[in-house]
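User: Can you write out an input/output pair for a complex, sequences first and structure second?

Assistant: Here is one pair. Inputs:
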Amino acid sequence: MSGFTSLVADQVQGRVPPADLHERDPDFLRDNLPWLWMLASFYFRAEVRGLGRIPAQGPVLLVGNHSGGNMAPDTFIFTLAFSTFFGVERRFYQLAHNLVLAYPPLARLRKGGTIAASPENAAKALDTGAAVLVYPGGDWETHRPSWESGRITFAGRKGFIRLAIDRNVPLVPVVSIGGQETALFLSRGDRLARALRLDRLARLKVLPISLALPWGLNVGDMLGHIPLPAKITIQVMEPLDLRREFGPDPHVDDVYDEVVARMQRTLDALAAERRLPVIG
Amino acid sequence: MRVEQHTRVAAPPERVWDFISEPLNYEHFMAGITRWDVQGEQRTGAGARYAMRMKVGSAEVGGLIEVVEFDRPHDLAWTSITGIDQRGRWRLRPRADGGTDVTLRLSYHAEGGLLGVLADRFAAPIVGGNLKRSLAELKRTLERQDAVIAAG
C-alpha cells in the first residue's frame, strides 16, 4: 500500500508546475479585471479597506486569513483590489495549494500571478521585488466550519514568519470576513482525509463536508461550488517591520503569536460590524 | 464610456479655475477620490502629474495621470499614463451674470472585450454620481466662501 501511495503522490507532485515568475502576464490581468470587478462589486458587494497602508514599492509579504472553501472569494477580490490600486504593472504573486495549479482548468491562474505555495517559490518572488500573498492556514482554515468564521486558524504554520525574517521584508496582515458564509461548511473531514491517506497522496489534510450549491451535500469540494453572495469585507492592517518591533533576531513563536493576535482583534472588529449572515 | 456633469457656480471663472487647478483641493471636494498626490516637482500646469484613485464599486481605480491642457481659465484636461485608460476635462465658460458654467467629463475604457464594455456601463452610474456630488461640493464651497466674504 505504501508503494502505491508513493506512486500516486509522485504523480500528483509531478503535475505541479515549477514556479516560472515570468508566466505572470499584466495584460491577462488587465483583460480579466472587468468581470472580477463586476463579480466583486455587485455579487459579493466587496469592500477592501486600507490598501494605502501597503508600502507603495518594493517586496512585501501579505498574510491573509482564508475563507470560502475551494471557491474562496477573498483571493480574487484582493487581487482585483491590489491590481487596480497599484496597477497591473506591479508584480504581485499569490501562493496556492499544489492541487490548484495541477488542476488543468485552473492553469490560467498562473498568468494572474498564482504560484505553488512553497518557501522557495515565495522567496524567489520576494527577491524580484514583488508583493506576495500567502494564506498560512490554507486548506485547514478555508474549510473550517461556518460557526468558526470569526476565528484566525493558521494551525501553527509559521513558515511565513521565517520567510519575512530571512528576506527582511515588511509583513502586512490582511483580514477578511464573509467567505465562510458562502456555503454552510460543516466539517473539515480531517479524520476521513487521514483514513484515505490524502495527506500523503496530495498534501491534503482535509476532505471537507458542506452544504453548498448546486450539489446539496458537498463532499471534498473538488469541483467547487456556487458561492452564496455573502458580503465580503477585507481590511489591510498596518505593516510590521519585524526587526524594528521584535529586535535584530526576532523569535518566530513570539512574532507568530503577535501577528495572529492582531489579526484576531481585527477579525473580531469586522465580525462586530456584521448584522446578518450573508447580507453583512 | 464618457460621463459628463454640469453645474452653474455664482463665481467668476478665474475663481473656479484657481480652485480646480489646486491639487490639494481634490481629496476634499471630489466624491470618491481617495488619493490625489502630486508626483514629481511640478505641482500644476501642463505636464504636472498626479497619482489618483477613485472608489468605484469594490475597487479604487486610477493610476498616474498627466495634465495635457492647461488653458486658464477655460480648459484643464488630463490623460492617464498608467492604470485604467482615462481622460478627464474641466470646461469653464463665463456667464452673462458673472457666474460660470462648469462641465466635468471623464472618459474611461476597461479592457476585456464585451465584459469590459459591460463593466464600463455598470460603472457609469457610480462614476456619474461621483462627478455630480463633486460639482455640488465645488458649487457649495465657492458660493459659501463668497457669502462669507460678502458678510464680512
